[in-house]
Structures are given as structure tokens and as C-alpha cells.
Design a protein that fits this description.
about 325 residues; alpha/beta; Arc Repressor Mutant, subunit A; D-Maltodextrin-Binding Protein, domain 2; seven-stranded mixed beta sheet; 12 helices; about 20% strand
């Protein structure tokens, strides 16, 4: 068979598979599983032993599959069953089909057991990304197919997510009235500016008056209804950005001074791009971040599992 004819043959094979299995299924998942077992275990006898079935029943199942599809999937070479070109294509596609079916059944079982299909997680931007990613990575093998919708917010954005019922699990710096939260981690903020910023050129401890003359870079509250200000905002010259990353970019670019989480600033301090401001007081401040369930009495097992992993990944 030349390459053009073989290509047409394989394309026709795929078309037949799609039409017979997807649109008008005449074969069963069990038939595909049987074919896979015969190939994976090297023949009918070996597959029959592994599946605890008779060899004749396996032969009948595969023969019926080939009859329903109207094409040969196997040929016998000596004592071994070998795939035809069409069999190779269909076996490869059938593996995904069988895996998808198994996953679908597992999801259905998990839903029946109360396991949530999705968790909406809202996280304050000050929460260390390394801890968050480590927790999510640890959650994957335990998730049972549960999807995670992750939203990063600033300040009152977390409050609003809770009050509006848009979150199953929240990490925030303020627990709204009517909710209970557990302290999760303490985050330290530090005042920094580019090493060549005018404030560093004063070569002395800085006062409020020194800061008021310069541009302060602040991070905008992502909330809409409950906006609040946190930290020193004494400068009349303020540039507002939407995230900690953008604030850091502005500070590294020499556009002003500001307070950012210490864990976020350390790489830039170590590289010499940023330097802590020598303030007489207030150079550093600490905030507590809390973990809050959106509906604690109805938090499902997946949400509770993720919450437990987050606790384990946060240093005490």
C-alpha cells in the first residue's frame, strides 16, 4: 500500500471510528477494554488469565467488535495477536475514550459523595505565591477532578467576595462581620525605593517630612463598595497601581517609594535594585492573613481538604 493510499485508509478509519463510537455507538467500552488487554498482555491467553475470563469469550468480544466496525483490527502472527494499521489508530484513540469514561464515572461518584466539582478561591495579593502554589500542587492528586477558580484581590476585594457569596475559600487581611476566620500567616511589609532614589541620597534617617516630598507608590484596593486604605498615605504625590508586581516594577524603575511584602522585595534587595528606606520609625509593618470559608457550615470535602493543605504549607 503506497503512502497516499495508506493515508486515505487511515483517515477513513478515523472517520469510521468517530461515526460509529461517538455519533452512533454500536460498540461498548468493554469491547475496547478487551482489545486493549489482548494487545497489552501479548495475546488472548495472557489477557484471559489477567482478566479472569475464558479465552473464547475474549475472542468472541474482539471478533464482534471487528464485525461491528466492518474492518480487521488484529491479525495473528504465530501465537501472537498483532494490530493492523487500522487497529493501531483505533486502539490509540480508544485508550483516551476509555480513560475519559473512567474519569467521568469517578467524577459522578465524587459528586454523589458530596465532592464539589469546583472551588472558588479568593486570595489577598499579599499572600506568598510560593505557599499558594505549593498547596495547589499538593491538592492536585487529591482533587478527584475538582477544578479550582483562583482570584487575586487587594484589601476589601476579599470582603466583598465573601459578602456577595462569590467565594468558597478566602485568604484575607480582614474578617468581615458575620464570618469566622483562622489566622493563617503573618506577612511583613517593608518600605523600599531604588538604590539611587533621592531619599537614599540624604544619607540619614528619614522623617515623615522627607517622605511627603516624594512620590509614594500605592496599590489600589480591588473592592468596589468597601474600599479602605491601609498603611502610611501621607504623601500628596501618589501613583496608584493595581498589583504588587506593578508596584515593584515602579519601585525598581525609580518612580517612587512604597511598602511591599518583604518576601516579594527580598530578591530585589539582594540584587541591589531596591534598598530599604532608613526610616526613624515605620520602616516595617506586619499584617495577619486569615483563612475564611464562604459558607463554613456547608464547606464541602474538597474545600476542607484544600484548606487543610494551605494550613500545612504556611509556616507557623
Amino acid at each position: 500500500m503506497n503512502s497516499i493510499k495508506k493515508r486515505k485508509y487511515l483517515l477513513k478509519t478515523i472517520e469510521l471510528f468517530d461515526n460509529s463510537v461517538m455519533n452512533h455507538p454500536r460498540v461498548t467500552l468493554e469491547q475496547w477494554r478487551t482489545l486493549q488487554a489482548v494487545i497489552d498482555h501479548g495475546g488472548y491467553a495472557q489477557a484471559a488469565e489477567k482478566l479472569h475470563r475464558s479465552q473464547s469469550s475474549l475472542s468472541y468480544t474482539v471478533a464482534k467488535l471487528q464485525q461491528q466496525l466492518g474492518m480487521a483490527l488484529l491479525r495473528i502472527e504465530g501465537r501472537k495477536a498483532v494490530l493492523t494499521p487500522a487497529g493501531e489508530v483505533l486502539l490509540r484513540r480508544s485508550r483516551q475514550l476509555v480513560n475519559d469514561a473512567a474519569e467521568l464515572e469517578a467524577v459522578a461518584h465524587n459528586l454523589d459523595q458530596g465532592w464539589e466539582p469546583e472551588i472558588n478561591v479568593v486570595v489577598d495579593a499579599a499572600f506568598p505565591s510560593a505557599h499558594l502554589m505549593a498547596a495547589l500542587k499538593a491538592f492536585i492528586p487529591l482533587s478527584r477532578g475538582t477544578r479550582v477558580q483562583l482570584n487575586e484581590v487587594v484589601l476589601s476585594g476579599a470582603d466583598e467576595a465573601l459578602l456577595e457569596g462569590r467565594a468558597d475559600l478566602v485568604i484575607c487581611g480582614h474578617v468581615p462581620q458575620g464570618f469566622l476566620g483562622d489566622q493563617l500567616i503573618e506577612v511583613e511589609f517593608i518600605a523600599v525605593a531604588h538604590r539611587d532614589h533621592p531619599l537614599h541620597q540624604l544619607k540619614r534617617d528619614l522623617t515623615d517630612e522627607d517622605l511627603r516630598r516624594e512620590i509614594q507608590v500605592v496599590i489600589r484596593d480591588s473592592g468596589v463598595q468597601l474600599k479602605r486604605d491601609v498603611g502610611w498615605l501621607g504623601s500628596s504625590h501618589r501613583w496608584t497601581v493595581t498589583s504588587i508586581d506593578k508596584a515593584t516594577d515602579a519601585l525598581v524603575g525609580g518612580l517612587g517609594f512604597g511598602w511591599v511584602p518583604l518576601h516579594h522585595a527580598i530578591p530585589y534587595i539582594e540584587s541591589g535594585e531596591l534598598a530599604p528606606l532608613p526610616l526613624r520609625e515605620g520602616q516595617r509593618r506586619k499584617i495577619h492573613l486569615f483563612m475564611v470559608f464562604g459558607q463554613s457550615e456547608r464547606a464541602g470535602p474538597a474545600t476542607q481538604k484544600l484548606a487543610a493543605i494551605l494550613r500545612e504549607n504556611c509556616p507557623r
